[in-house]
Write a structure and sequence with these properties.
- The protein is an alpha/beta fold.
- The protein has two domains: about 260 residues, P-loop containing nucleotide triphosphate hydrolases (Rossmann fold); about 220 residues, P-loop containing nucleotide triphosphate hydrolases (Rossmann fold).
- It is built from 18 helices and 21 strands.
- A seven-stranded mixed β-sheet has the order 12-13-21-15-20-19-18, sandwiched between helices. Strands 6-7-8-3-9-10 form a six-stranded mixed β-sheet, with helices on both faces.
- β16 and β17 form a beta hairpin.
- α5 packs across α6 and α6 packs parallel to α7.
- The longest helix has 22 residues.
- It is globular.
Length: about 500
Amino acid sequence: MNSPRELSFSIRIRAGNRTLVDIPDYSLPERRLMILFGESGIGKSLINRAVYGLLDGDEFQATINGQDAASYTSTPWVRSVQENGFFVFQEPSTHLYPLLTLGEQLREGSLKDSVSEDAILGELWSGTPTARPSSLLGVYPKPYRPSGGEKQRMLLAMAFKKIDLFLARGEAELPSLFLFDEPTGSLDNRFRDIVLSMLFDRYRRMAFTGVVVSHDYSLISMIRKEHKDLAEAVVFRELALEKSALVLRKFEPETYLGWLSVQHPPPRSPGGRQIARIESDVGVFHRTLTIARDREGSVPAPLVLNQGAMTYLKAPSGTGKTTLAKMMIGLLRGERFSMTLGGDTVGVGTREEFWRKRVWGKSMTMVFQHADEALNPRSTVFDTFKGLPTESMPTRDWVRRTLHELFEPDMADEILEREVSNLSGGQKQRLNLLRGLSLETGLIILDEPLNGLDFESSIRVLDLLRERQQRGNSILVISHNEEIFDSQVGDEGIYYLVQ
């Protein structure tokens, strides 16, 4: 396959007096599929919206290849791309209109001409025990129904209908761009693989320009195993900050695959004392959840968390992993729940005073999935550590040393007095992790700890967790990054939550 022609863009985006993006060379390989990695909040979505001509001129001041956003959007290339392509937003509600049913939006404009709707919906809902997709077509995309995963699949269905229309024209030379911004964030790995296979199968029929934005580096393994014939067509790149400058660089698959190949779970110490035990039968929100040693739930077992061990809890999205974690730490009450913590047995009737005096920040800590929900955006980075239940007030030197565990020294010094709201998503996540880990409680619960991190930061987090294990902390991980955490936890430390 010949080397692709690069579509090159110089992009600068500002909001008021603040520069959000300044990248002199953002390149897309024409008629290739680019997998774009990078830290959350670094600018991936904004850059791709700019390329596609979707920036709001009232919200942003942007120049693309020397033109203001309005002039750039009116160029023939952008008009053609918007006519032939599609943009899948990270948050489906950004695209879906609340006053039209999903069915009306699925057949809006040129999408009404597609004859592949039933086949696409069948693939996107294959094997689901929930309602058939046809039952959702009359539903309005309101906040609580359909679910996030259902809305995401409906938006993906629109994208695949648009790709099919483009392929049916058979004019490969027409400008095209299909952008998928975190297209499977609300889906588990099985549906992730289905979505990518649908994309790759269409690419095999006729090459087009596509971008998939993701934080999931295990895509590399999936593509290598399942789609070897596309090795030259799929390009991996990473958006990164190098000395405070935003750059797009190649990401070599062997960087991830080589690291993965040498990962081995540490031996589980048979002598580690029990920190907590959660009985397998859980009732919450009028649902029954079962903790088990197998995916089907045929072998119910208590969740046992031992000193110095990492334990991995698996389940599809929406099953209730985070709900169970919040019950463990006393933030949610259910109908049935029993946990032995140290020498105490606690359950749905345990009073809040116990959790406040004996658990929160003392024997157990939970690092929440979304840093924005856990951190005060108006606090400085230094002040974020001041409210922790520690014996003494943290000093600036102590906070600086703590930041050095996941931040480069220069960056740690620079952000110490910066407001949390001015950090990138990946920086917030690292701060969120460090804040929780600094309490050194016997049990640490981590909900999607690698959320929004680039590869280098993910490796530093995993090294930090290994270090905490060696200190004797018990770590419970909830994560969709199965390939990565399977390499860190042996079979004896893996549990499943089944509904």
